[in-house]
Specification:
Largest sheet: 2 strands, antiparallel
Distance between the termini: 30 Å
Order of helices and strands: HHHEHEEHE
Shape: globular
Strand order of the largest sheet: 1-4
Number of helices: 5
Number of strands: 4
Length: about 130
């Protein structure tokens, strides 16, 4: 079942593409027991729980950064986060995502060894500044 266009449009500020939004629904949302709207509202609440550091600091061009610096920036901005709650992943040589593990009821952060095992192993990765 496709995610309605209205929800895709409303979610693009927290997920960068319609393809990713559809993927998240198929992989996680469709078995969550929630309808489309409730799933993406819960996703937004989880997103809003996290203070996002300005890791690109107004840079206009790509730059290089190691995964621990990015992880530490999130830890510095979010006092309840611990290193075992956060994983930074890369694809090829680019920053892919910062994953933060939260309980399903969004009440607390939890350790996520499966995410930590897949953290970026590169000494540095390319970070593309946000638009």
């Amino acid at each position: 079942e496709r995610v309605p266009n209205s929800l895709v449009s409303a979610t693009l500020d927290i997920m960068p593409s319609a393809g990713l939004i559809g993927h998240q629904w198929r992989k996680h949302g469709s078995c969550s027991g929630l309808d489309h709207r409730s799933y993406f509202e819960t996703s937004r609440r989880a997103f809003d729980m996290i203070e996002k550091p300005d890791i690109d600091a107004g840079r206009l061009q790509s730059f290089r950064q190691d995964h621990l610096s990015i992880e530490n920036a999130f830890l510095d901005e979010n006092s309840a986060l611990r290193p075992e709650h956060v994983g930074v992943t890369c694809e090829r040589r680019f920053l892919r995502e910062v994953r933060i593990c939260i309980t399903k009821d969004l009440q607390r952060f939890v350790s996520c060894p499966e995410v930590d095992r897949r953290h970026c192993k590169l000494p540095e990765m390319v970070v593309v500044p946000a638009n």
